Structures are given as C-alpha cells and as structure tokens.
Amino acid sequence: MRHRVAGRKLGRTTEHRKALLRNLSTALFDKEKIKTTLAKAKELRPFAEKLVTLSKRETLHARRHVLREIHDRDVVAKLFDTLSARYAQRPGGYTRIIKLGPRRGDNAEMAIVELVDRDSSEAAVETGKGKRSRRSRKASAADAAAGGETKTTKTKSAKTSKSATSKKKAAAKSASKAKTKAKAADERSPAAKSKRAKKKTAKATASKSRPKSK
Q: Which candidate among 70, 72, 173, 196 keeps its CA 20 to 30 Å from the CA of 210?
C-alpha cells in the first residue's frame, strides 16, 4: 500500500518523470500558459514554483541551481530578469490551474497551467478571443456584411468588364470574318476574273516584246 507516499508516478520512471517536469516548466516559463493533463499540472505546480522562488534570489548560485533543471539559457534569463521582478512582492502562488474537463479519446482530465499576473495586453487579447460582447458581435457581423457587399460589387464589376471585353473581341472577330468573305466574293466575281486575264495577257505580251540577250 502507498500510504504516506507523496507525488504521482505518472506511469514513468524517475528519470523520465524528471525530464517531463523540466520540459513542462520550460514551456510554462517561455509561453506563460500551457495545456496538459490535470495530474501533470498538479505535479508541475510545486516544481515550477520552487524555481521561481530560486530566481528571486538573483545570485549566481541560484542561477546555477535553476540551470540544473532548465537547460534553455534564454528561458533562464527571462526567469531571472522578468519573472523574478514581477513576483518580487509575492510570497508564493505563482501559478494557476484551470480545469477543462475530459479529453475526447481517452477521457483524461485536461487543465491549463498559467502564470498569474501576466501582461494585461496578452490577457485582454486571449479573453477577447474567447468571449465577446453582443455589441462587438454585431459590429463584426456588420463589418462582415459590408465586406461581403463590397466583394459582391467587385465581382459584379469584374464580370461586367469581362463581358464587355468578350463582346468587343467577338465583334472584332465577326468584322474580320466579314471582310475576308467580302474579299473572297470580289475575287470570285467575273469582273475580277477578267482583270486577272487582262493582267496575264499584258505580262505575256511584255515578255515577248523584250529583246533576247545574245
């Protein structure tokens, strides 16, 4: 029996479990908000909060302790430069867990782990994505309708211009065909034939009248 045994094994060995917590904490400090299972989130919270407490010391010894767990130097720099200043007056509780319910497929409980007191701009953007007021919905719908109208007018104008150009091309083709037909008819006429015969006879007489070169 596992009486008085703290922690969750998460179906992993000790080394694998440590690597998992290190990767999750690195992603949490980098993105400041991640999604994972509820069991992993509950195991991640104390692991990550201890690292934040270490970063508030701002000493080389503390930085080396954090580098044992987080191997990304950029994330460590953010932890010591930004997050430690943000939580300088906070005695603990740097993370928040929000339950999301079961996941489709394996029915695992999901949760969001995020850092508290994040930037107000990022939080406003994310809340705006999730929840919008009725006025904003109406405004977006009106903008979409206006955009659809402009698109329809543009498509109609493009269609009309295309039809006009196609009509012009068809008229030019018909005119050229009519000209060729008229030329052919003129050539077939008896007057044209007589003209051709006269030209031939004139050429023949001219060739005969020329003196032959010795």
A: 196
Domain presence at residue 182: no
Computed on alpha carbons and rounded to an integer, the radius of gyration of the chain in Å comes to 43
Beta bridge pairs of residue 111: 36, 99
Q: Where are the alpha helices (DSSP H) in the chain?
A: 14-31, 38-55, 60-69, 73-78, 84-86, 120-130, 134-188, 190-209
pTM of the model: 0.56
As for how many domains the chain has, the answer is 1
User: At 107, which CATH number?
Assistant: 3.90.1030.10
Q: Which residues of the chain have pLDDT under 70?
A: 120-156, 187, 192, 208-214
Q: Is residue 144 part of a domain?
A: no
Residue 106 CA to residue 169 CA, distance in Å, equals 64
- In 3D space, the residue among 75, 90, 83 whose CA is nearest the CA of residue 118 turns out to be 83
Q: Find the domain containing 106 and state its range.
A: 14-116
